[in-house]
Design brief:
about 150 residues; mainly alpha; 6 helices; HTH_MarR-typ; DNA-binding; DNA-binding transcription factor activity
Length: about 150
């Protein structure tokens, strides 16, 4: 790859992924909640009535447990999630949203949906979805090269 290609990739990263994360985080109604924390809340909410552990959340986000445990700790301290021990195996802890957490989650989920609907409308829904599909393919190829 040429130096110009690498510069273009770095610029695309800074203008897209980094900016998107910063923008989404700025939209969250509670300044103490990062976008990563919101995504943890999203995973918990999407698990529905199925109990979910910190390990399962880490697996879903494709990160280590330690990478999200501090964020989970903050969500616990803020009273947005709660932790309950398994009745059989007390070491196993399940995470659920509190009523306050669920309220904050749905308020922000609505904000993000409206924003993404606007992006899809302006960019074109099919093009938007196709672009995200391409990004996912690129990420998979990068992961494969890291494993080699």
């Amino acid at each position: 790859m040429e130096q110009a290609d690498i510069s273009f990739i770095a610029q695309a990263y800074n203008k897209s992924i980094k900016l998107i994360g910063t923008l989404l985080e700025s939209k969250i109604s509670d300044p103490q909640v990062s976008f990563d924390m919101f995504m943890i809340m999203h995973i918990i909410e999407q698990s529905g009535s199925e109990p979910i552990t910190l390990s399962e959340i880490a697996e879903t986000q494709e990160v280590t447990k330690s990478a999200i445990s501090r964020k989970v700790g903050t969500l616990l301290d803020l009273g947005l999630i709660e932790q309950k021990s398994d009745r059989v195996d007390r070491r196993k802890k399940y995470l659920t949203l509190t009523n306050r957490g669920r309220e904050l989650y749905w308020k922000n989920d609505k904000i993000f949906k409206e924003m993404l609907d606007d992006v899809a409308k302006r960019y074109g829904k099919d093009d938007f979805l196709k672009t995200l599909e391409h990004i996912n393919k690129i990420v998979e190829v990068i992961k494969d090269t890291m494993e080699d």
